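Q: Structure tokens for this one, please.
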Amino acid sequence: MRSEFQYRRPASIDEAVAMKADLGTTAMYWAGGTDMVLHWMRSIHSPELCIDITRIEGLRGIEIDRDSIRIGAMTSLDELDRSADRHCLLNTLSDITKLMCTPQTRTIATVGGNLCNASPAADLSPAFVAMNADAVLAGPKGRRRVRMEEFFLGVNKTSLSGGELLEEIRIPLNPDLKVVASYRRIDRTVVDIALVNASSCISVDSDGVINGCGIALGAVAPVILRVSDAETLLLGLSVRELGRDREELQKVEELSAIAAKPISDVRASAEYRRQMVKVMVRRTLQDCAIQLKA
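A: Here is the predicted structure, written as tokens:
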């Protein structure tokens, strides 16, 4: 860990981006720091300049309008947890935060920091992918939107480049559709890293017919996987059919397991993880069916 480094606290997104662009890889953004401190201690990163973005107001908060949910990258996990009653998708995200870390850590750790760490076993990432979320990136050349499944490039690697920072996450909404989501994971303890996780997001029209579907897997590949082939099989089914043991649902489980690329390690074998993918996907879809029938 570097014993000395410069510290700056920009007042705006543009100022922060300019600082990072000037110094490149020798500078790093500081959010909650819950992952970064560990990286410093292990000498994974050793920046010359720490750019503290914790006080930039434009990076915080949760806003809901007719077409989307906006979550600022610097929104703490605790604030996300407390937003459960504002929208059913936020309720799912709130439940996820309770699995991620202790209550004390949730007051410091941020949504953006968790995503930018780009762990394949992260809890929020599959949910955002399943919800068709976009990452809004701010950089020297302006802003751009990236599909969340394209934001993750590998273990601890993202599509951020050239001094960019993650400004916000946008979850699209369609006022003509009812949407729900679910998240499940296999772990050893409540705050342990997932052995396998999965998230599903289902939207239905006024007749209860599935109009949109997202299925995402975590901890079974270097990046979060979206199972597009499996999603397509569910389009056009009714909510009543979603909760039954239909042939389509069995195919969804099989396609999800085929898409997975798990490894064997000290925590679990690849075959166990592949089988658990089927279980997690089935349970998330059943959860969605229950919510839609409520």
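A few notes: The first strand starts at residue 6 and ends at 8. Residues 270-293 form the longest helix (24 residues).
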